[in-house]
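Recap from last week: sequence in, structure out.
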Amino acid sequence: MTMTDLIMAGASRRDMAARLVSLCWRPNVECYYFGYAAHVGHVLIGFNASSRYDYGMLSRALGRPLDGGLCCWRDRQTEGQALLTHGGGWTAIAFWDRSGDPRPNSNTAFIVRGTLTFEQMIRVARHQHPLVWRRFTFPVVQVGAQGTQPHR
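Predicted structure tokens:
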């Protein structure tokens, strides 16, 4: 939603301020990527990351395994339906993604230290991993644990 949309909808100053903050988050923070990498399979990629250590540490902090555990589990694995998770000082968005690997349970997750909103996570992930984002042929939208869009 743009600022113009908020103004036209008669949004409160608080809602407009929250939207401005979401647009101002610096996208140059460290952002881990878990997902498909060509010729390797599903891996965790980060800054100077020791993947084995970081995978366990991040899974423990977020309370679930990175590989599919942070995605929205429903009857269907709809690509791009992203679940936002906070835990242990980290924020993650994860969703089913078969853009690189067509098999069931293929997924993507982006993880950042701190407490970020969904919009901030999208901005950081797009900035830090542009080649991954170019692969997506589906919209990435926030859903709740039951697969429904959260109330705002």
